[in-house]
From TrEMBL:
It comes from Sphingomonas natans. Pfam families: SLT_2 (PF13406). This is Lytic murein transglycosylase. Residues 21-46 are annotated as: Disordered. Keywords: Signal.
């Protein structure tokens, strides 16, 4: 009797699911083999470049810190840096004979028409009047004519209307990584970090794809060397102060050898019978040799007059002043006698088109209407 009750109790205590469900099959041979995991996808070319770029930039940290960059500044500013292919395309896509030869013509006239034209002259005259008090003080200090500083300002940024929209820290990192001029652009990258340490936000320091920045379009290394305070507030801010920018332009030209009270040059007429034999310069310039080869050897203004060259403009350099001759549109067109101050403008931008246009715009801006 007891055994029947016990058996009945055990039966009742067993849950229904246990009564109706077969025990699990523990036969390992019945288990279906899992599919092997797919291999990870190969990184794309863009991903590989991003990784390599990142490694390169991070690798500059010891060099930057050795140059005095704050470690926190470096880590913060490089955290979001990315390679900029636009900068490399612009760099690789860049595009002014001897004196007297027809092949020496560099076809300056079209460039002059587009750079020394009524709109730029008119705006220059307006800015000349509004900035006169600041400009005259800078001229008194540097000896550089107000009009020349203003003409460079006009050529570089349209009197401050366009200064570029590239992140110059990113541009320098990209150009240094690309490698053709790695030492140059690595140094400019580090100098940009120094400017950030000086309190200039990266968001303010926009510029060209090549890193020229501010109203004067200085490279960071140039700013660190030659940027000066022009408005008297104790800080040289070439991004937001026109007075600082113009004073820094003047200081640059002084550093490049500007001589006070000497015109940059003057237009001349070369007679059709002019003998160009022996006028080629024997000097070779290590910087921009193609630009300098288009300039003649040095003679005094008096000596050029003695050869029949006729002055066709003003102001006229003194007879004792040395000058070289350029015929930018070939024989028969307007030529120019250029003083050593022209060389200072060339130092700012090594292009005869640029330097001639700066000089001519300066003359127009300062000429009474």
């Amino acid at each position: 009797m007891i055994s029947r009750i016990l058996i009945a109790a055990l039966f009742v205590a067993t849950p229904i699911w246990a009564q109706e469900t077969a025990p699990p099959d523990t036969d390992q041979s019945a288990t279906v083999a899992a599919e092997p995991a797919a291999p990870p996808a190969e990184p794309t070319a863009a991903e590989r470049e991003a990784t390599a770029f990142r490694a390169f930039v991070v690798g500059l940290r010891p060099q930057a810190l050795a140059a005095g960059v704050n470690p926190q500044t470096f880590d913060r500013e490089v955290a979001d840096l990315a390679f900029d292919p636009r900068v490399v395309r612009a760099d690789r896509g860049q595009p002014g004979g001897a004196i007297g030869a027809p092949s020496a013509s560099i076809n300056f006239a079209p460039y002059k028409r587009s750079h020394v034209e009524p709109v730029r002259i008119g705006r220059g005259r307006q800015r000349y009047e509004s900035l006169r008090s600041q400009l005259s003080a800078i001229e008194a200090k540097t000896g550089v004519p107000e009009s020349v500083m203003l003409a460079i300002y006009g050529h570089e940024t349209g009197y401050g209307t366009f200064t570029g929209n590239y992140d110059i820290l990113r541009s320098f990192a990209t150009l240094a990584y690309e490698g053709r001029r790695r030492a140059l652009f690595t140094a400019e990258f580090i100098d940009t970090l120094k400017l950030i340490d000086k309190g200039f936000p990266r968001s303010v320091m926009k510029g060209s794809w090549a890193g020229a920045t501010g109203f004067p379009q200085f490279l960071p290394s140039v700013y660190l060397r030659l940027g000066i305070d022009g408005d008297g507030n104790g800080k040289a801010d070439i991004w937001r102060s026109e007075a600082d920018a113009l004073a820094s332009i003047g200081n640059y030209l002084v550093n490049a050898g500007w001589k006070p009270n000497v015109p940059w040059g003057v237009p001349v007429v070369v007679p059709s019978t002019f003998d160009r034999t022996g006028l080629a310069s024997s000097l070779t310039s290590p910087r921009c040799p193609r630009v300098h080869v288009r300039l003649s050897r040095w003679l005094t203004i008096a000596e050029w007059r003695g050869k029949g060259v006729m002055i066709a403009g003003a102001p006229v350099p003194a007879d004792s002043e040395l000058a070289s001759l350029i015929e930018p549109d070939g024989p028969g067109a307007t030529a120019y006698l250029l003083t050593t101050n022209y060389q200072a403008i060339l130092d700012y931008n090594c292009s005869n088109f640029y330097a001639l246009s700066v000089g001519l715009l300066a003359d127009e801006v300062s000429r009474p209407e």
